Fold this protein.
Amino acid sequence: YPGLIWENEEKTMFRIPWKHAGKQDYNQEVDASIFKAWAVFKGKYKEGEKAEPATWKTRLRCALNKSPDFEEVTERSQLDISEPYKVYRIVPEEEQKCKLGLGPKCTLNEITDMDCNPSSIEELMKETPSAVEEYLGTIKRSPSPLQESCRNPPIPDWWIHQSSPALSLMTGFAAYEP
């Protein structure tokens, strides 16, 4: 498809042309061809039907955003140029499993070699008593804001409301009536 190219040598990111239909040099046959192909593939368009390139584009965008296999790389996308494009990254299977908590190892962003299983996370969350005491000591030494800055504003009239029979139905408790 015209403009569909790899963004990097590793072939883990790709560009999709993303020209707006309102541009002067917009050509539906070229600029919407990948979106049309997706609509045909998904059975949402058959030759001879009314062309809806904006709908096709939306469907492909939604499919890419919903899929765990792809992630938009917004910082690499260029939408304000004469030949605009979006960049998507192919998410490795291990990373997908890790995000779902199914994989044995995580290598996401700053987190490296961290077990994703629940027991490992529990171990990380356990703190030694001395660390907890140190934390509580820090809280006790932290300055509190001045009392006058903590005053609550008066409650506006619109906030005070009558009890509603729906409230007792929803919660099982009757609302307090002064």
